[in-house]
Here is the input.
Amino acid sequence: MDPKGKVRLSSTLYLTFLAARFSFVTAEPEDLTVPSERGSARNSAISKPHRSRGALALAALVGAGVLLAGCNLPAYGAHHGSTTQGHDTFKLWQGDVTAAIVVGLIVYGLIFWSVFRYRRKRSDNSMPRQFHDHPKLEIVYTIIPLIMVLVIFYFAVLTENNVDAVSSHPDLTVKVTAFQWGWKFHYLGKGVEVIGNTQHYPQMVLPVDQPVKIILVSADVVHGFYVPKFDFSRYAQPGVVNLFDLNVRHVGVYRGQCSEFCGLYHSEMIFSVKAIPDSQFPAWLAQARTTSPSHLLPGAPVTPVPPNVTPRLSTQVP
Amino acid sequence: MTIQQERVEVLLPEEHPHHAEPTGLLKWMTSTDHKVIGKNYLYTSIAMFLLAGLMALVMRSQLVEPDNTLVSFQQYNELFTMHGSLMLYLFAGPFAFGGLANFIIPLQVGAPDMAFPRLNALSYWLYLSGCIIMLGGFFTTGGAADFGWVSYAPLSEATNSPGAGPDMWILAILLTGFSAIFTAVNLITTIFYLRAPGMTMFRMPIFTWGMLVTGILILLAFPVLSAAMVMLFADRHFGTHIFTVQGGGVPVLWQNLFWFFGHPEVYILALPYFGVVTEILPVFSKKPVFGYKGMVFATIAIAGLSTSVWAHHMFTTGVVLLPFFSLMSYLIAVPTGIKFFNWIGTMWRGHLSFKTPMLFAIGFLIVFLTGGLSGILLASPPIDFAVHDTYFVVAHFHQVLVGTAVFAGFGGFYYWYPKMTGRMMREPLGKAHFWTLMVGFWLTYVPMYALGLIGMPRREATYPAGLGWTLWNQISTVGAFLMGASFIFWLVNIWISWRNPIPAGSDPWEYGQSLEWFTTSPPPHHNYNKLPPIRSERPTWDYYHPEAPKVERNGKQVIPALVGASSGSPDASNGPGAAGNGRSGGGSNPPEGHEDGGPS
Amino acid sequence: MRHEAYLYLTMLAFFGLVAVIYWFTSIEDSGTIMLAASALLGFLPGSYFLWWSRRMRPRPEDRKDASIPDGAGVIDSFPGSSIWPFVLGMGLALVVLALIFGIWTAVPGGALIASAIIGVTVESRRGGTV
Here is the structure.
């Protein structure tokens, strides 16, 4: 059976399980500020009110941060995702990084506070208080991270299902074969095949705003199909057929490269994806069928070719 | 001769006059003393670290400008493979469980030696031959292994990577793998069977707990690695087709086997160093570890979870159960968070003094936190799709591993060096080492995060101009050289301490807590001539600091049940040959004399 | 002994549980086998320690109130210096190298291993040193 089907099925199971939890999860930060918690905090050895209140505020902040993901958050240096799938990933990235920064600032704050506040004075030979543990406080800072990661996990699963969704009736299916060291793009049913290697980087032309199904396989070792601006990569492996959809949002040329180390000329295993308006795509197909942009014959035996390092030819992407 | 080691209350004058221990090279070759073997491990693993560091500098020089031709593609591939292999298989692990643990664990549990001294020696010799064989790959005609330290099949099969170099790599991994298994068995047995009276499991120092759990993780992980290596070797030479699709094999099986080893390995490299930090922070804060039991349970939880997350390295293969591995990976953040809060709690309201080990420990906290947070990002499958196999991942795991093996590891080195050698390191040089390393560290790895986000894949021998990668790479290279330079301070420090020794007393840090600070520096043959009563997880502290405020458990003060502690100073019973003793104030009444009697 | 047993039995419980979950949700078998094997690794020493912990008096190192003299006496027999681990290690390395460079390195390697085995046995029996 199709392994991907089973993966998605399980994802859905997890999702249902978590959806049931989620109402509880969002309610949790408020519920935790029960009076008894505060009362006991006052008597504690450590200045616990600050810590637990800070932690609660943190949980609320992170929850809010994740919920607001994608509204007006900075990009944090990442590509915005030029496919719909990649854009979903990008939004998740924004939310997760925001949460990470909030958590990081709080923990850094605590570390630096201890370092600067509690530095020993040179003449001070007294002993500090020897507090050894505080189970209630420890339970609080076990539960809060647990809730946080469950919230983050929930959004990860949501996004993952979007990114991994494969359309059943795509307009266009491209079979991508990775080999040492180059790529072959076979437009199934269209009679077009593009091959390129380290001397002539191949280009995959796709229509914009159309779901395109990619069938990714490898002819020899493990490769990685990676287009940075799509915020996406997937291994091409011998013995495994990987399926995924690309739905490019904007016209343009996107540089791509093998990401998984695959031998001597791994760093020259470059390709590009060119997205053109849907209306121009049939014309491109027709032209490709006659003039055949590949300089190699389709189906020709693939032999490793040393790269032509200087000058770099073809499909140089600005 | 066989020594019937006894635990004694009183000094045994010159207990072993009869056997002449060999000296020099013969001592090095024949010793079964855990202290000598531990030091051998330390020297060897640090040599491997420096070599791998030099390889990293060559790689950074290659990447300093686009289309650079300093090294060829082939050489670059060999360099990053050997850099990773040396650092992960031959430095970070053996430095912790071969070097530090070998030396410290018997001391911390109050044992005369490891449980199986000859097996201990054997594991060192296997490790050393593994090192030599792996490096020997460079001298074969085909060059060293060049398929990455993960050696993904079928790239590592004979058709794609022929030659003796890869074979030597595989066999070196086998030898060092068995060495690690033997060491793990030895450590676990020592901890279970050779503890001193009163040293219950929940009084062991956290470093010992970390090493115990690490030992169990080694027993889980390394046999899988060895099995995978044997399969790979059989594929290469004996005509099997376990990982080749043409013969009906399953290449993905390699990744499952490898990462079932590989992820626990990451924690095999982390848990000991968590332990090191947990030793250092309390001593320099003059406080007990905060949340001792929480620490222990967090260690166990991390170990358990780390063995069920292996496929988060395989998110982009498309053939793993994403939600399962994602959830398990996220859950690791919880016990790690407990550890972080406990470390902060240990420093909280303490009296912190910033000697070199403490600086390195705090450096670890800061560095590892950043690495951990980027790790939480990577546990999300879609984000992993976006940055998998890019420099983002490189930056992430270097932050984690440099945080543990280098910051915490060298913190531990500075911390225990006086105990191992009886000499002090120089503080100014140690601080220079720390700050240079810290600045270099951020300069090296922050640009790598940026590079990964804009799309530079890892393991690239060179890259074209015009992609906006050049400047980041140049900053990173400057940082790498700064990190490299910082180790010059460290080498000079050792050189000075060797030429011009300042004797370290039994407890050079004045507030040592665990048992090893009770004996002389360096410890005598079979470690202890006298032991203090063990009534908590810090027997040395209890013995020397009865003036300290009472311990507060759960907000309530409890009286440490310290009985029979004041029967004289242990100094009187320390064996001959110890290089001085810092407890100069220690007479018949150590507590009063101690505060002003510490070493300068 | 009890805590040692519980440590391993926790392993048994945890990996047993994860193996079952993994078996029913995942799409590959090797992981289930490795997880189940991990659970077994927890079972073997764990059950052994538990069995013993119920049948023996707590050792001094298991007792919170034990004092150092409680552990007085012979702890164990520790070997002195010995050349044989070195010989055995070099022998193993040579035998392993024979897999790459041909059978000829296995001959001295095998000889070293044999002598080490004999040597270490004799040494242990006689209680002798180098």
Notes: Residues 3-120+132-164 of chain A form one domain.
